[in-house]
Design a protein that fits this description.
The complex is a heterodimer of chains A (116) and B (110). Chain A is mainly β. Chain A is built from no helices and eleven strands. The chains are: A mainly beta (116), B mainly beta (110).
Chain lengths: 116, 110
Amino acid sequence: GAVVSQHPSWVICKSGTSVKIECRSLDFQATTMFWYRQFPKQSLMLMATSNEGSKATYEQGVEKDKFLINHASLTLSTLTVTSAHPEDSSFYICSARDRRGHEKLFFGSGTQLSVL
Amino acid sequence: DQQVKQNSPSLSVQEGRISILNCDYTNSMFDYFLWYKKYPAEGPTFLISISSIKDKNEDGRFTVFLNKSAKHLSLHIVPSQPGDSAVYFCAATDQSKLTFGKGITLSVRP
């Protein structure tokens, strides 16, 4: 089955630093990748939609200068949390849609970010 | 405004019995519904889906029922197994993006 690799799985950083999270589709090409954020006991909230070769589309309330998304190739999207603060601590999950257009998304294993 | 609602935060059932997980939605533009299973500190994995043109889809122990007039769907797991213990997310799409419910924690007691 399709595999999406997400790294790192967890990261602890100091307030004010930037953190980059990578999301790779290993055995398929993904024209679209999605970035979600999940707080404890809450739903997965879509942050942004990343399309290969174009600018990401951010959901309302998500700061695009804070959460930089790059989708430079059909198999890689990155999310950079810039100048992280403790309130950015969360579980971030990426997902990728097969370019053949299947409705099912394939999810990465997630990144637990803790900002001290 | 929560468009996909899973009103029960948790469910506990005995091994071998049926687990019924419920989900309600408000957006009539949703035309495809999915269930995902999630273990702690892992990403969700796809379980089963149903198109709005159907009212039932079955895959092994898992069956999803859709009642469009009530804007309600449910996931039935029978027989339930201890390995089914996880968080289950209901999701819906109008072909633009997936909208998730808050999830329900299922515990299957041996």
